[in-house]
């Protein structure tokens, strides 16, 4: 299996301070991988580098195919309609690739609100728009930055269902970046733990969720219930 | 009564010029967060070139379009210098546009001299509701109205317009979806330049232009734009028209010396009210 995302020995510095230090990370085709870590561990920096919005100091990033981002905090175009938000997700595709019909088939909850301003939507609806907008780019791999942040558990469950569907039925590779480690480890087969700009741990999610270092730091000190 | 109609139509004609300059400021500010103080220079350059082209024997229409194209080109050049270097703050860019506006004086005086210039527009006198006014004022309105309709359509219904609005709405998200925000900023500068150029070309037949006419235009255009917090082109249109009418009424009934003061008082009032209500207009985004 080849990696759809291959990160090797990545170093990123902000005005002297090292944000990421020697990161190795792989997401294989049709794989769902979690990246967990505390605030300030460097997760968002990694997302920015992966999306090409930030230049690394050294190291290599190889993305086979197209990478699309669901950014932290949803990052809507608040004054634009849901449909315009989606359309702009296909900006790189050219005119014909900006038809939004397929997205409403995939995410039917968006159809009734397509004309509403994105800024007037609930957090869960905005997250759905953000996913739809990322899908408009017709990605091979989706980087989801903080899917659950600030959302009610039921809303998160619905979003997770959609994400799982896209992964299993559409074969989309996913890199899920989450503060909610329990959610991420339950959803993904493999996971990385980022601490202070370094990969502290990585391996099968099931093993990590029993690792005392993970349970103490990220799962509230309780050992995860075996599945 | 006929006096009033005459003042209103004349005021709308003059106000259309302010509205065009103001909406040019808005077009640039929305996308780049830069207040472009070279905006008035686009109008002067366009008007000067049009007078030269007409003097060289080019027909009406062609010469005016030439002026507007020069405005757009000047806008693009100002944009490249003001925001071309990545990481330039909007405050720094503002100072750059101010400097370029002054530099434009030198270029204008060098090429066209320091004497007022004008060129004929639509000749003759129109009679509307008993009021007699130069027919050219009606042409100004007849051109400005469709320009604003096309702009509204462009920003809301075309993907390029949506992308410009997206940069205005959320710059980071625009980058996330792959929009080149710097290129969009340059496009906004070119649009602003064209709108400024159009203002100069349209109003010069009824108001002579000199190299420093940009001061009147920028003060009034800024007053119009600031009504909508520098982000709403249609409010800039309404503001510009209102200013034009208010000034013409003040001049007609009160005396011609206070035209600029009307704009300044209106601008200060709006800024004070807005500052009290929503905090200051953000200088950086």
TrEMBL record, chain A:
Entry-linked InterPro entries = AAA+_ATPase, ABC_transporter-like_ATP-bd, ABC_transporter-like_CS, BCAA_Transport_ATP-bd_LivF, P-loop_NTPase
Q: What keywords are assigned to this protein?
A: Amino-acid transport, ATP-binding, Nucleotide-binding, Transport
A GO molecular-function annotation? ATP binding
The family annotation for this protein states:
Belongs to the ABC transporter superfamily.
Q: Does the keyword Coiled coil apply?
A: no
Q: What is this protein called?
A: ABC transporter ATP-binding protein
Gene3D superfamilies recorded for this chain?
P-loop containing nucleotide triphosphate hydrolases
Which SUPFAM superfamilies does this chain map to? P-loop containing nucleoside triphosphate hydrolases
Please indicate which superkingdom the organism of origin belongs to. Answer: Bacteria
Q: Which PROSITE patterns match?
A: ABC_TRANSPORTER_1 (PS00211), ABC_TRANSPORTER_2 (PS50893)
Task: Give start and end of each ABC transporter domain.
Answer: 5-221
Q: Which Pfam families match?
A: ABC_tran (PF00005)
From TrEMBL, chain B:
Q: Which Pfam families match?
A: BPD_transp_2
Major localization class: membrane
Question: Which superkingdom heads the taxonomic lineage of this protein's source?
Answer: Bacteria
Give the residue spans that cross the bilayer. Answer: 6-29, 41-59, 65-83, 95-113, 133-156, 184-202, 222-245, 257-276
Q: Where in the cell is it found?
A: Cell membrane
Q: Which CDD domains does its entry note?
A: TM_PBP1_LivH_like
> How is this protein positioned relative to the membrane?
Multi-pass membrane protein
Question: Which key words are in the record?
Answer: Amino-acid transport, Cell membrane, Membrane, Transmembrane, Transmembrane helix, Transport
- Give the similarity note: Belongs to the binding-protein-dependent transport system permease family. LivHM subfamily.
Name assigned to this protein: Branched-chain amino acid ABC transporter permease
